[in-house]
Design a protein that fits this description.
Blueprint (H helix, E strand, L loop, with lengths): L11 E5 L5 E4 L6 E5 L8 E5 L6 E5 L5 E4 L5 E5 L8 E5 L5 E5 L5 E5 L2 E6 L7 E6 L4 E6 L5 E5 L4 E6 L9 E6 L2 E5 L5 E2 L5 E2 L9 E5 L2 E5 L6 E4 L4 E4 L11 E4 L4 E5 L5 E3 L6 E4 L8 E5 L6 E4 L5 E4 L6 E4 L9 E5 L2 E5 L5 E4 L5 E5 L9 E4 L4 E2 L2 E2 L2 E5 L6 E5 L5 E6 L2 E5 L5 E4 L5 E5 L6 E6 L2 E5 L5 E4 L5 E5 L8 E2 L1
Antiparallel strand pairs: 1-4, 1-12, 2-3, 4-5, 5-8, 6-7, 8-9, 9-10, 9-12, 10-11, 13-16, 13-24, 14-15, 16-17, 18-19, 20-21, 22-23, 25-28, 25-36, 26-27, 28-29, 30-31, 32-33, 34-35, 37-41, 38-39, 39-40, 41-42, 43-44, 45-46, 46-49, 47-48
Length: 489
C-alpha cells in the first residue's frame, strides 16, 4: 500500500450511448434502458475485473446486480454473481468510447431507450458507449510504477510526480469532464497539456481519453500517446507509447483534508520541536496536518508531513508524535461555530499552556481549549450530495443540489469562517426564504464541519445546515447534519 495509507477509489462511471442517454438500472424488475439524460444513482456502474483473466470485466449496477446477456442477445441486470453471461470484454475505440462485447457469445451490446440488446455482430455507432466517471472529481494521483504522487511544481511550471505523501494544495488535481474527455486541472486553475506545459485554457492538447487497465487509469492524448512521469522529477507529459504499460498507469485516491490549527494564544500548532506546541507565527508544512477521519468511529487522527501521528504520553497527557498509526491518539472534534475543541482518547480536552505546549488534561471547554481550524487544500470547492452535484441554477441565482455536472467554487478563509464564491466573483448567502443564492455582492460567513471521511457539513450564520431538498434545490434550513446535509468535497 502506498505511504499515504489510502486505497484506490472504486472506478464508478456512467455509460452514454450514441443518443447522449445514460445506461440505467431500474429498481423495479432489474430492467435496463438507455433513457436518462443525466448521471445520477441509477446510472452509476462499477467496473470489476475477473480475478483469473484481466481482460474480462463485470458491470455492477447500483443495486449490486450484474449486467448480463443470453445467447439470444437479451439483456438483463438480475444476476447477483459473476456468472458466464456477465462476462464482457471492453473494445476501446480511437475516440475513447467503448464497445462492450459478450465474452461468451462474441456479440456487441448497444441500442437506445428500452430497446437494448447484445446481438450485433459488428460495431456501429449504436454499440458505442462514452465513459463518464462518477467519482468526486478532486483527488490525488498516484503513479503505479514510481509509487509517487503528482503535484503542481510552481518553480518548474509543471506537474511533477515525486511526492511520497500528497501534501498541501499543490497535490490536489481536478478532473474536468468535457465532451467525453477529461482535462487535468491544477490548484491554480491551469490545465495540463500533452507536452507537459500548463495552459490557462482547455483545448485539444489538454483533453485526454480515459482507459482502464487492470483496475488502473491511463490518460490517452489527442495523438494516441499516453501520459507518464518523465525524468528525475517525474514531469507528467505524453511519452512515445501508443499502448499503456506500467509507466502509464495511475490510481486516483481520495484526498484527505489538510488543516492548520491556531491556538488561543494566536500561534500555529507546530511540530518544529519534539512535542506538539502552539508556538509558530507562520504557516508551513510543519504547521500543516492531515486529518484522517475513521469511517466507523468518526474520530480523527492527525498526521504530519513526515508521516508521524499525534499521540499521547500516558502520564501527564503530553501531545507528541508517533511513527506508528497503532500508537496514535484518535481524537473527537467538537465543532463550536468558528472554533473547535479536541477531545483526546483519555477523555480529556486538549488545552494550550502559556508556553504553547499542548496537553490533554482539561475536563471542560474554556478559552484555552478552543482552536481555530483552517482547511487549506480545498481552494477550489466541488460539492456532491446524495442526489448529485451543487451547480448554479440555469435561470436564477439559486443553487441546484442534484445535478450531474458541477460548478467549481472558491473557498476563502476568514477568521474561522469561510466565504464561498462563484466563478463570477459573487458570493453565496441564504436569503429570507431559506434559499441559498450565489449572487451576493458581499461575503457571508459559513462554518465548515468535517464530520465524516470525505464529507463535510456547511452551517449558515443562522446555525442551520445547508441541505438539498427533494426538489433538488439547495436550502439553508437544515436542523442538523443529516444525510441530505452532508457533502463530498
Amino acid at each position: 500500500m502506498p505511504s499515504n495509507g489510502n486505497r484506490p477509489l472504486k472506478l464508478q462511471f456512467g455509460l452514454i450511448n450514441h443518443e447522449g442517454r445514460y445506461l440505467t438500472a431500474e429498481t423495479f424488475g432489474f430492467k435496463v434502458n438507455a433513457s436518462a439524460p443525466s448521471l445520477k444513482k441509477k446510472q452509476m456502474w462499477t467496473l470489476e475485473q475477473d480475478s483469473q483473466d484481466a481482460q474480462v470485466v463485470y458491470l455492477r449496477s447500483h443495486l449490486g446486480r450484474y449486467l448480463a446477456s443470453d445467447k439470444d442477445g437479451i439483456v438483463s441486470c438480475e444476476a447477483d454473481g459473476h456468472n458466464s453471461d456477465c462476462r464482457f470484454l471492453i473494445v476501446a475505440q480511437s475516440d475513447g468510447r467503448w464497445a462492450l462485447q459478450s465474452e461468451q457469445y462474441l456479440r456487441f451490446f448497444g441500442g437506445s431507450r428500452d430497446y437494448l440488446s447484445c446481438f450485433a455482430q459488428a460495431v456501429t455507432d449504436a454499440e458505442l458507449w462514452a465513459v463518464h466517471l462518477a467519482l468526486h472529481p478532486q483527488a490525488n494521483l498516484l503513479s503505479v510504477a514510481r509509487k509517487r504522487y503528482a503535484h503542481l511544481s510552481m518553480e518548474d511550471g509543471e506537474i511533477a510526480v515525486d511526492l511520497n505523501i500528497p501534501w498541501g494544495v499543490a497535490a490536489l488535481l481536478t478532473l474536468v469532464y468535457l465532451d467525453g474527455k477529461y482535462c487535468l486541472k491544477t490548484c491554480d486553475g491551469r490545465f495540463l497539456g500533452n507536452d507537459g506545459k500548463l495552459l490557462t485554457q482547455s483545448g485539444r492538447v489538454t483533453a485526454y481519453t480515459l482507459e482502464f487497465k487492470c483496475g488502473k487509469l491511463a490518460f490517452k492524448d489527442c495523438e494516441g500517446k499516453y501520459l507518464s512521469p518523465m525524468g528525475p522529477t517525474g514531469t507528467l507529459r505524453s511519452g512515445r507509447c501508443s499502448k499503456p504499460g506500467k509507466d502509464e498507469l495511475f490510481d486516483l485516491e481520495e484526498s484527505h483534508p489538510q488543516v492548520v490549527l491556531i491556538a488561543a494564544n494566536g500561534r500555529y500548532v507546530s511540530i518544529r520541536q519534539v512535542s506538539l506546541a502552539a508556538n509558530q507565527e507562520d504557516e508551513t508544512d510543519t504547521e500543516t496536518f492531515q486529518m484522517e477521519i475513521d469511517r466507523d468511529t468518526k474520530k480523527s487522527t492527525f498526521r504530519s508531513s513526515q508521516g508521524n501521528y499525534w499521540a499521547l504520553v500516558a502520564h501527564g497527557g503530553w501531545c507528541i508524535l508517533s511513527h506508528s498509526l497503532f500508537f496514535s491518539s484518535p481524537t473527537s472534534v467538537k465543532w463550536l461555530g468558528h472554533k473547535v475543541a479536541l477531545k483526546a482518547n483519555n477523555g480529556k480536552y486538549i488545552c494550550t499552556k502559556k508556553n504553547g505546549q499542548l496537553l490533554a488534561v482539561s475536563d471542560s471547554i474554556g478559552e484555552d481549549e478552543l482552536l481555530t481550524l483552517k482547511l487549506i487544500n480545498r481552494p477550489m470547492l466541488i460539492l456532491r450530495g446524495e442526489n448529485g452535484f451543487i451547480c448554479r441554477h440555469r435561470n436564477s441565482s439559486t443553487l441546484d443540489a442534484s445535478r450531474s455536472v458541477y460548478d467549481i467554487f472558491s473557498l476563502e478563509f476568514s477568521g474561522g469562517a469561510y466565504h464561498i464564491k462563484g466563478a463570477d466573483g459573487r458570493f453565496w448567502y441564504v436569503n429570507g426564504a431559506g434559499l441559498v443564492c450565489s449572487d451576493g455582492e458581499a461575503p457571508e460567513a459559513f462554518s465548515l464541519e468535517l464530520l465524516e471521511r470525505g464529507r463535510l457539513a456547511i452551517r449558515a450564520k443562522s446555525g442551520k445546515y445547508l441541505r438539498g431538498d427533494q426538489g433538488g434545490t439547495l436550502k439553508g434550513d437544515g436542523p442538523g447534519p443529516s444525510s441530505s446535509a452532508l457533502w463530498e468535497y
